[in-house]
Design a protein that fits this description.
- This protein has 201 residues and is an alpha+beta fold.
- The chain contains five helices and ten strands.
- A four-stranded antiparallel sheet has the order 5-8-3-10.
- β1 and β2 form a beta hairpin.
- The termini are close together.
Length: 201
């Protein structure tokens, strides 16, 4: 349940942080400022910044970028971002992460050994794969202890994008898991109702 004012508040906080960095260092910050914000009943609050793109947010957003990314980076370097029009495709995206079945479980759990298992990637259809914490060995592709593959569906509607991502994750065989609720109407409605309750709206 995001408001336009939430975006503006987050942007203003970011402007103030950038101004403080300039004042403190004498040089303008050039790069990515990925802010972690929370919306509360008292407005937007800052949790943290990362000087990198968000994960998995970048996998949802960057594939929709129509403007040349290298050109954007050059404008960042030159301090001329106001001179370029940045455009995105008007599409829906859903990213589902494939993880080892034992992801987040204690080391003595029976499924913990899955973090060293071999996986097979079959026909993922239209889904895009972003390999993360995997190890390519002579015998094939192996999991490690973290998120293995980001599977992204892109389509005109959220339902279609979710279907593409779902088809992609089902094509990855081995002791893996993923959240089936990501991108569903039920989860989105739950998040909206949660924010309404926080804000008493």
């Amino acid at each position: 349940f995001l408001k336009t004012s939430d975006i503006e508040e987050g942007l203003e906080i970011t402007r103030q942080v950038a101004a403080a960095l300039l004042k403190e260092t004498g040089a303008p910050y050039k790069g990515v400022m990925y802010g972690g914000f929370i919306a509360t009943k008292d407005g937007v609050k800052l949790l943290e910044y990362n000087a990198r793109f968000g994960d998995p947010e970048a996998m949802n957003i960057l594939p929709l970028l129509k403007t040349d990314f290298v050109e954007i980076c050059q404008h960042i370097i030159d301090g001329t971002l106001d001179k370029i029009k940045i455009e995105f495709e008007h599409k829906a995206t859903v990213c589902k992460y494939v993880v080892p079945k034992g992801y987040g479980l204690p080391a003595d759990h029976p499924d913990a050994a899955s973090s060293k298992s071999k996986i097979e990637v079959g026909d993922v259809g239209k889904a895009r794969l972003y390999y993360s914490s995997v190890d390519k060995k002579e015998g094939g592709l192996y999991l490690s202890s973290s998120r293995a593959i980001g599977v992204v569906g892109i389509a005109d509607t959220l339902k279609e994008a979710r279907g593409i991502a779902e088809e992609g994750v089902k094509a990855i065989k081995g002791p893996v898991a993923y959240r089936e609720d990501i991108g569903t109407d039920a989860l989105i409605k739950k998040r909206i109702n949660h924010m309404k309750n926080i804000r008493k709206e």
